[in-house]
Known about the structure:
alpha+beta; 3 domains; 9-stranded mixed β-sheet; 7 helices
Amino acid sequence: MSIKKKTAPAHLGDGATDAVVLDESTGHVSHRDLSDISVTELDGITINRTKTGISPFVPILKTPTYSQNSGTQSGYAVEIEDPDSETGYRHVGNVSQNYLLLSNEEVRELAVEIAVQSGLGFRESRIFWDGSRFCHIVDFLETEEVAPGDEVGLSLITRSSYDKSWRYDCALMGKRFVCDNGAISGEFFARVSFKHLASQGTSHVGDDEGPKEESWKEIVRQGMTVIDQAPENLDQFVTGLRRLKQAKMTDGRLREVWNTIPTIGDSIKGQIMSRYVAHEEPTLFGLFNAGTWLFSHREKMTAADFGNNDAFSSALLGYAHEHLN
């Protein structure tokens, strides 16, 4: 197996809010202005869960807050522009002085930069935004087949938040393209993650303090040089899926797999089984597809779906590599 690299321009174009598509055959970057995309509809780019349809790329501020009685500064408020608000701004969270505020525009721009520098053909495929949490996904165009006509590949998923609910997270993930199912796994795919806390001294990815404010982009760039390992990541992903596909569903296997995902609640497990019984083949691959479909295609996707996706995908891929051959 091989992934062919494409020569890509080093620049991102005129607008930081363009949707970018890198043509696999020519290396040409074309742009689609995200402001032209309705932020309230799922159109292949944006899933907007804000009640008033606020764009993910509106300006954001971190402003000091004060105690009502003493007037002492008590922290900082994170606010985004909202023309429907009486003040013109919407409060989205309270943070500390050293909270590292990363705008969605910066986060997306860096993700596209990493994709371009990888030299792999790619396209932006999805943005998730609920007013506080932001997720951006780039699909790489090279694929492998689990079975004839069933192609899988890799994506770059970046997550961040304005209210401390999500750490900054930039990672590779698996993608089944026939149904657009994404498989997130911190265990099987390269990842850079840190808290939104600006360090006052030397810090490295993984430290509780987080990176220094002026260096967070360089830390992510360095960490995601592991994208060069994409062929190995894809090979491991495809091998796991092929093993799951060959594993016929039995009562014993279902019980074993079920015990590996204790963090997923019974209600969610029931929804996975409902999808599996109604739509999927009677193999562990069918069960894998049922879960990843559920977490990738909810009508009202939530932040919890990303965590459940990671737990579920890691468990089944781990089972495939440890118990199936």
